[in-house]
Amino acid sequence: MERTGVTPTSEEFDYIHSLYVNTSMDKDEFCKDFKKHGDSSVLRDVHVRALNFELQDSQKQKLIKEMAEFLIGKACAYEDTDFYKQAVRLIGQREVTMMKLKMDLPLWDEDKEYIKENLK
Question: CA Rg, the chain, in Å?
């Protein structure tokens, strides 16, 4: 409020704060620029699109994690390295190994090697 001379509602503050935390500007620089462009419909539209993108990305990441968990389960049930390799492609060796530990599944040589390499 001091830097911009604006007294926002709580909803407006949430919007302004969301913009600020998603910039690389310091607070003074952001407030100076916001005073000039804060009412921009372009800025609001881009913000909405960014929020929608973040929501879609979050949903996709959840689906990818679920698929990886499914593949890991199948890999262990059928001792199938193809399922395992696909899970690694989806979420990476670290996450696969962590997921197997959380699921209390047996560690394969690949998992053990990863752990050894990263505990050095």
Answer: 23
Q: What is the pLDDT of residues 7-52, one digit of tens each?
A: 999 999 999 999 999 999 999 999 999 989 988 999 999 999 999 9
Whole-angstrom distance, CA of residue 117 vs CA of residue 69: 23
Output the pTM of the full model: 0.76
The parent domain of residue 66 ranges over 61-118
Q: Is residue 12 part of a domain?
A: no
The DSSP result for 51-109, as a single string, is: HHHHHHHHHHHHHHHHHHHHHHHHHHHHT-HHHHHHHHHHH-HHHHHHHHHHTTPPPPH
